[in-house]
Amino acid sequence: MELDKIIQHDVTKPFPLPDQSIDVVITSPPYWGLRDYGIKSIFGGDPNCKHSFSEYNAKLVHENRQNLDGGTIGNDEFREKLHGFGTAKAGFCSKCGAWQGQLGLEPNPQMFIDHLVTICQEIKRVLKKSGSFYLNLGDTYCGSGRGYGSSPDPKWEKARCDNNKSKPSWRYDGGWRQPKQLMLMPSRVAIA
Q1: What is catalyzed by this enzyme (predicted)?
Q2: Alpha carbon of 159 to those of 35, 109, 133, 153: distances in Å?
């Protein structure tokens, strides 16, 4: 392998690199629920499946993380017209359970953490024992969660709800996710 080469790669796909071949990995994944970059990937499931995804709208945890004027006024339709963004599409495969969506826009924080852990395992494989890994991961405030509309897909509803409860986990019921609190995502990823 040549020296001093910068490699950019989609981390949702296997790295085309040999084991223990990289000195440094520096990455800043999307923070959970804050931005829509318009890039979809497929996580989990059967790689040989001819997927059949049921797509549903997944709004950001906070609608104005683009720091645009007027983000907190008006209704969703007004904000979407004003800023040119609305909801991201995501969904589960009805055949194998794979999730298609964007890293950071998973329906719940645990799924986001699981995806980051999978990515970090691949990074560990290619990183030399003497290598360095830098993960820039900021926190997210828990929103009301009301941005995720209802869906007829039971996989989507189950993913949104903690412990198979019948109501979405964002509703205050003494659980760990409450509106206006930090999610502690960097710590949760570190101990995962």
Answers
A1: a 2'-deoxycytidine in DNA + S-adenosyl-L-methionine = an N(4)-methyl-2'-deoxycytidine in DNA + S-adenosyl-L-homocysteine + H(+)
A2: 20, 10, 30, 10
Sheet holding 53-58, edge to edge: 41-43, 99-101, 88-93, 53-58
With 0-12 CB in 10 A as exposed, 13-18 as middle and 19+ as buried, what is 170? buried
Q: What pTM was estimated for this model as a whole?
A: 0.72
Q: What is the pLDDT of residues 27-63, one digit of tens each?
A: 999 888 877 777 888 898 998 999 998 887 766 655 4
For 115, list phi and psi in degrees, rounded to 5.
-65, -40
Residue 78 identity:
F
Tokens 């009805």, residue located: 94
Domain-by-domain residue ranges, the chain? 22-191
Full DSSP string of 44-111: SS-TT----EEEEEE--SSTTTT--TTTTSS-HHHHHHHHS---EEEEEETTT--EEE-TT--SSHHH
Both tokens of 17, joined, read: 């690199």
Digit-coded pLDDT (tens) for 85-134: 556 778 899 999 999 988 988 888 889 999 999 999 999 999 999 999 99
- Sign for the pseudo-dihedral over CA of 181, 167, 116, 65: negative
